[in-house]
C-alpha cells in the first residue's frame, strides 16, 4: 500500500483523526459569537413596543401595538403582528429585536409540536413557560422580553419572560418601552374575574395610553383572545373599533 503523500488531503485527514480520541462521536458545534457594536444595535429592527397580558375568568387576553422601528428613531413598519400562536391554547408576544423574537417563537413552536408528536398530548403552560425561560437564558436570542399567555387544565396563565430567562406569573403583566404608561391604566382598571370581553377593552385602552406618549409604540392594536377552544388574533388600526 502506498504511503500518503506529504500535505495531501488524505494525509491531513489522517493527522486530524489522530488527534481525535473517538472519531465516531458526533461533532459538537459552538454558538456564534455576538460581535455587534453599539452602532450595529442602533440599526437593528426593534419592536419598541407595548405588550399586555391579562388572565381572566374565561382565559387570557393579550394586546400589542403594531409598530417596528430602527433604533427607536425611524418607523420601519406600521403593521407588525407582535403576538403569535405557539401552542394550541397559548400565544407569545414579540418584544425587543425582531429577528431574535421571530427565532425564539419558531424554536418554541417546534418544541411544542415535537412534544405533542412524541407524547400524544399538549405541553402544559407551566412547562412551556419553563422551556421559554431556559431558551431565553441559554440561547442566541438577542434582546427579548416577551409575554406568554395560555390556558390548560389548571386554568389561565400569564407569564413575563425576562432577557435573562426569569419566568414570573401574574394576573396581568406589561412589557416593552411603553410599559409604565400601560401599567398606570391597568392598575386602575384591572378587576379579578373579568371576562375576556372586558379584558380586551382594558388591554386596548392600555395600549392606546402608551401609543399617545411612547415613540416606540403606535399604529394600532393586535388583540389575542385565548380560551380552552384555541387562539384568536385580530389587528385593528383604529382604536374606535375596539373601544
UniProtKB/TrEMBL annotation:
<dbReference type="InterPro" id="IPR023333">
    <property type="entry name" value="Proteasome_suB-type"/>
</dbReference>
<feature type="region of interest" description="Disordered">
    <location>
        <begin position="1"/>
        <end position="34"/>
    </location>
</feature>
<keyword id="KW-0068">Autocatalytic cleavage</keyword>
<keyword id="KW-0888">Threonine protease</keyword>
<protein>
    <recommendedName>
        <fullName>Proteasome subunit beta</fullName>
        <ecNumber>3.4.25.1</ecNumber>
    </recommendedName>
</protein>
<dbReference type="GO" id="GO:0010498">
    <property type="term" value="P:proteasomal protein catabolic process"/>
</dbReference>
<keyword id="KW-0647">Proteasome</keyword>
<dbReference type="Pfam" id="PF00227">
    <property type="entry name" value="Proteasome"/>
</dbReference>
<dbReference type="GO" id="GO:0019774">
    <property type="term" value="C:proteasome core complex, beta-subunit complex"/>
</dbReference>
<keyword id="KW-0865">Zymogen</keyword>
<keyword id="KW-0963">Cytoplasm</keyword>
<dbReference type="InterPro" id="IPR000243">
    <property type="entry name" value="Pept_T1A_subB"/>
</dbReference>
<dbReference type="InterPro" id="IPR019983">
    <property type="entry name" value="Pept_T1A_Psome_bsu_arc"/>
</dbReference>
<dbReference type="InterPro" id="IPR029055">
    <property type="entry name" value="Ntn_hydrolases_N"/>
</dbReference>
<keyword id="KW-0645">Protease</keyword>
<dbReference type="GO" id="GO:0005737">
    <property type="term" value="C:cytoplasm"/>
</dbReference>
<dbReference type="InterPro" id="IPR001353">
    <property type="entry name" value="Proteasome_sua/b"/>
</dbReference>
<keyword id="KW-0378">Hydrolase</keyword>
<comment type="function">
    <text>Component of the proteasome core, a large protease complex with broad specificity involved in protein degradation.</text>
</comment>
<feature type="active site" description="Nucleophile">
    <location>
        <position position="49"/>
    </location>
</feature>
<feature type="compositionally biased region" description="Polar residues">
    <location>
        <begin position="1"/>
        <end position="14"/>
    </location>
</feature>
<feature type="propeptide" description="Removed in mature form; by autocatalysis">
    <location>
        <begin position="1"/>
        <end position="48"/>
    </location>
</feature>
<comment type="subunit">
    <text>The 20S proteasome core is composed of 14 alpha and 14 beta subunits that assemble into four stacked heptameric rings, resulting in a barrel-shaped structure. The two inner rings, each composed of seven catalytic beta subunits, are sandwiched by two outer rings, each composed of seven alpha subunits. The catalytic chamber with the active sites is on the inside of the barrel. Has a gated structure, the ends of the cylinder being occluded by the N-termini of the alpha-subunits. Is capped at one or both ends by the proteasome regulatory ATPase, PAN.</text>
</comment>
<dbReference type="GO" id="GO:0004298">
    <property type="term" value="F:threonine-type endopeptidase activity"/>
</dbReference>
<comment type="similarity">
    <text>Belongs to the peptidase T1B family.</text>
</comment>
Amino acid at each position: 500500500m502506498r504511503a500518503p503523500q506529504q500535505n495531501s488531503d488524505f494525509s491531513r485527514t489522517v493527522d486530524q483523526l489522530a488527534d481525535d480520541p473517538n472519531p465516531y462521536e458526533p461533532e459538537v458545534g459552538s454558538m456564534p459569537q455576538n460581535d455587534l457594536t453599539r452602532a450595529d444595535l442602533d440599526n437593528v429592527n426593534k419592536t419598541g413596543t407595548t405588550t399586555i397580558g391579562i388572565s381572566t375568568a374565561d382565559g387570557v387576553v393579550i394586546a400589542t401595538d403594531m409598530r417596528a422601528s430602527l433604533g427607536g428613531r425611524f418607523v420601519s413598519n406600521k403593521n407588525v403582528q407582535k403576538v403569535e400562536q405557539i401552542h394550541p391554547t397559548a400565544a407569545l408576544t414579540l418584544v425587543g429585536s425582531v429577528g431574535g423574537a421571530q427565532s425564539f417563537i419558531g424554536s418554541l413552536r417546534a418544541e411544542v409540536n415535537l412534544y405533542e408528536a412524541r407524547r400524544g398530548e399538549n405541553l402544559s403552560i407551566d412547562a412551556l413557560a419553563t422551556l421559554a425561560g431556559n431558551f431565553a437564558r441559554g440561547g442566541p436570542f438577542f434582546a427579548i422580553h416577551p409575554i406568554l399567555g395560555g390556558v390548560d387544565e389548571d386554568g389561565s396563565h400569564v407569564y413575563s419572560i425576562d432577557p435573562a430567562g426569569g419566568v414570573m406569573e401574574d394576573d396581568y403583566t406589561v412589557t416593552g418601552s411603553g410599559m409604565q404608561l400601560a401599567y398606570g391604566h391597568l392598575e386602575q382598571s384591572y378587576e379579578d374575574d373579568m371576562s375576556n370581553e372586558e379584558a380586551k377593552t382594558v388591554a386596548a385602552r392600555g395600549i392606546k395610553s402608551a401609543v399617545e406618549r411612547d415613540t416606540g409604540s403606535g399604529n394600532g392594536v393586535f388583540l389575542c383572545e385565548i380560551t380552552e377552544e384555541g387562539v384568536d388574533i385580530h389587528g385593528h388600526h383604529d382604536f374606535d373599533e375596539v373601544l
